[in-house]
Each structure stands twice: as C-alpha cells, then as structure tokens.
Fold this protein.
Amino acid sequence: MWQALHEELRDRNFVVIAVALDKSAEDARPWIEKAAPTYPVLIDTQHVLPDLYNIVNVPTALWIDERGRIVRPNDVVFGTDTFKHITNLESAKPLAAVRAWVRGETAGFAPAETRALQTLPTALDQQARAEFGLAEWLARHGKRDAAERHFVRAGELAPHDFTIRRGSMPIRGIDPMGPQFREMLQTWVGGGRPYYRPLPDTRG
Amino acid sequence: MTFTLIDQGRVGTVPASVEGGRVRLSADALRAALGWELHDATLCNDAMCVPLPAGSRLGEGGVFDLGEVAATLDRPLALDADEGAAYLGVSAGERAQALGSLIAPDFTLPDLAGRPHTLSSYRGKKILLVAWASW
C-alpha cells in the first residue's frame, strides 16, 4: 500500500514504518506478502502503538522528523483510493503533502501547531486500554468468557476507540466487516459522530 | 493463590490473596512484582517516589491492596479477580506529557519474520509512521 511512496522517496532519507494492529502475524501476512514491502511492517498484537500514540482507529499516520520529533500528529491517511467510496477521503492530498515534506519543499507543523492538533488520552482512554490489555491476555490463554467481559468494558469506556471495538472483533470470533460492525458503525455515525477524524488540512 | 500481574505488557506472577474481588499483596510480593517499596508513607521504586495520600492505609499490617496501589500511582488497573489476573496500564498524564514533548515515543516490535525493529534506530531519517490493520 505504501510501497510506491517508499520507493519513490527512499533515496531522500525517508522511510515508511507500518504497524499492523492485528490479533496475529498470520492475520496480517496475506496483506504484507501481497504488498511485498521494502519498508518495515511490524506486528503489534498487544496494541503498544495505540497506547503510546493515542491511536483510536486505522489507518492513522504521523510524521516524525530526522531528530525523532513529531511534526505532524495523528491523521487519517489512506495509501490508496480503494475505500474512497466509503470514506470520502482521497489519498492524493495527504500523499502529496508527505512528498513535499520529504523533498524539503514544506516543513511539518511548528511545535505549538502540532500540540494544538494533538488529541491527548483521557483517564477513561487509558482505563479502556488496560481493560483491552487484560482481555487480550485472557483470550490468548483460552479464557474466552472473561476476555469478552473486558473487551466489552473497554469499548464502553472508550466508544470512540475502534482499535478496541473493531480491532477486538477478530479475537472474539466476530467478523470485523460483518453485521455487528455495520450496526456499530451506523449507531456511531447516526449519532453525528465521525468514524474518521482527519486533521483540518486533510479534510479541507 | 498465584496471581498474574501484567505490568505494561510484561507478564509476571505473584502470590496474592483474593477476597471479595480485592487482591492483596505482601510487601515482598509488591516489590518483586512491580518494584515498589513503602518507606515513611512514601512508595518508591528505583526511579521515583510517590507520597501516599492523607489517610491512606496502604501497607497497614504489611498488606497492599492492588487497587489502592494503582490509584496511589495514578495508573489504570483492569482486574479480573475470578481469573486471578490484572493489567496495570499507564496513566493519561504520563502519556499526555510524553506526547506533548513531541519526542516520538520509542517502541520495539517484530516484523513477520519475528525480527525486532526499534523506532529510534531510524533516527536521522524522516519517517511516515502508519498504523493499519487487516480488519
């Protein structure tokens, strides 16, 4: 998905690092093998990245500069237009912005702007992540009923966190594209809440 | 009973008594599992100390209630007393402070082949960090 961008810019001191929030490497494997990436694709079954970066849905991308500083916080960035008919988000604009930044034609956001655009976790978000962490461990140890209780509680504590509510579905034996997901999505969006929350300049 | 305590993803086991949904640890168990010790109404580990709130009975009689330990440390605790397991997460304040510093939080995760990759080892490059999933 990101292979073309990575290849185009790799000689300009740039790397894509993709992290799969999947229940196992095997769930992610078909997508990775199809993409044949020359950039690192990592497997995050325990949601280390969502906890560190307050990521609540996929795809989420952020820019990190040569000094290891965040210069553009969490944004919705699609690598292709495969889902454009559903998401109404085009890939071209954010990808053009990445190109311009890597080529040095534009800078990322200044620190104050970056902070203003960040969404920071609340105590409920972090409680939800602890519930998810416990549930994931319980599920891995065959404690299915107990795991279900904590997955459900995690989703109730952070209903906007789809890495929990949708991301837990494959672990719980629920089809993440099926009727339960569609019902969850309709309830959420029907209440006037967005499923994707792009930054203003991506949305605009 | 042997209780499973997951500290930010690191799994350990610790002797504990579970009663009425509450988990009680000894001072030794607390130190072994989480690295915290109580001295003069202050919980300390290698790196820092946290004073107990006024009126706290934490550690009275050598007994440490796990829920009170988590609350004192301002850390989220997910607990399943029936299954004998709990997950101790990281506080919103700590995460918010780290993100607000704008220094990209470091992590190490495996690729498909199981080979570990560390974000900070790519220092010196511009990085597009992308979270995705098959779902």
